[in-house]
User: Fold this.
Amino acid sequence: MKCRTCSTEIADKALICYRCGAATTAPRVAPPEARPGRGPWPVVVAILTLIAVSLLVLPQLPEGPPRLAGWVGVVVATVLIVWVLKPARRRSRLLGRRRP
Ligand SMILES: [Zn+2]
Assistant:
């Protein structure tokens, strides 16, 4: 058969052209679509919101356990937001690779 790219005569069983390296068949598994990456804005907005909450709301809470609970809430929210928004791309790539 002939190479689709450079028209060199190659063996019928060849998977790639020995001359130009082009594949003789269409790829079995399509490469994962390049998704437009989420910008840093969701994280920035979320963190700014958290800063605003901790500056405006927390000082109004009474001293002691309520304010401590407020801070714990802010920290937990920060961790959750970073965890939910950041690894989204990595997780989808892992799932794509596991598919046969
Ligand atoms: Zn070729």
